[in-house]
Design brief:
alpha/beta, 12 strands
């Protein structure tokens, strides 16, 4: 099992409280849950959770048959899918802990009948705060508080550095392509933390805050004419079939946009952001991509 490049020592115990020498009370998506510490084997049905557990260096993890994310592929196992846990596999392996979230959550009660299981869903507009809460909980469960503290520090530092990089460089519009279809996401959406935490102005305020974004046209993009276009490619994220974001956006109307003409179209790591949103490595990857692009533009403008 690889050791995460992020694991370094400090101390953190945020969002959890000791219940006894062998158990703690952690905050889950469904409220406080008492759980035994130091599980020796874990099944994971949530990619944001797996992302953070990997960053912490947790070992003896089994996950789904398709994690979608290359950096998490070593955890792929015969445990079912993100949408359908293999109940027989869980029963046979008898893991000390099963972590579910998001796409797998409707199976929580079924899994709880055969193994300790928690709902660690990350959902809504404030994925960063929830992600850091989950990080603290995992650090306490697995006795890795120092590593959790260092990871939190890295996220907070990356947020501050990226906030400084984007300052004064205009507004942005977040879009997701799904083959030929395009949706736009505002500050109240699942990707809204990119605006809220970075003080990055919205090119189009008051977009619909729906799970799948507001469906928009190429004409909408041209009229919005953002300074920066932040792109998430769903086809690439899930390994599906269809036109890539680069192909979809390469048309006459988009080519009239300032962002396109000035090379200010940023293709984010779609898999990490879409599949593992709120995971520590997912957050850090998005911030690195943005900071690199904005820093490069600042150097050109000097």
């Amino acid at each position: 099992m690889k050791r995460s490049i992020f694991a370094l020592p400090l101390i953190l115990a945020i969002g959890v409280s000791a219940a006894s020498a062998d158990s703690v009370t952690i905050e889950t998506f469904r409220g406080p849950v008492e759980i035994e510490t130091a599980p020796q084997s874990t099944f994971v049905y949530d990619m944001a959770a797996l992302d953070t557990l990997d960053a912490l260096g947790v070992t003896n993890i089994t996950s789904v048959s398709q994690t979608y994310l290359p950096y998490l592929s070593e955890y792929q196992g015969e445990a079912g899918t993100l949408f359908e846990p293999d109940i027989e596999a869980i029963h046979a392996a008898a893991p000390d802990l099963v972590i579910l979230g998001g796409r797998s959550i409707e199976h929580l009660e079924t899994v709880q009948r055969i193994a300790p299981a928690v709902d660690m869903t990350i959902w809504g507009t404030d994925l960063v705060a929830q992600g850091l809460d989950r990080l603290a909980a995992y650090g306490t469960i697995y006795g890795l508080q120092p590593q959790a503290a260092e990871l939190r520090q890295q996220v907070e530092a990356a947020l501050a550095d990226t906030r400084a990089a984007v300052a004064g460089q205009g507004n942005a519009l977040i879009v997701m392509t799904n083959g030929p279809r395009i949706s736009a996401y505002g500050s109240g959406s699942r990707f809204g933390w990119l605006h809220a935490y970075l003080n990055l102005p919205e090119a189009v305020p008051d977009l619909e805050d729906t799970t799948h974004g507001q469906a928009v046209s190429f004409e909408f993009l041209r009229e919005a004419d953002p300074d920066w276009l932040l792109v998430i490619d769903r086809v690439a994220a899930i390994g599906g079939e269809g036109a890539s974001a680069q192909v979809t956006l390469d048309n006459a109307l988009v080519r009239e946009m300032r962002a396109w003409q000035q090379g200010r179209v940023i293709y984010l790591d779609a898999g990490a952001l879409y599949i593992a949103g709120g995971g520590v490595q997912s957050i850090l990857a998005a911030l690195t991509t943005l900071r690199t692009a904005f820093d490069a533009e600042a150097r050109v403008s000097e």
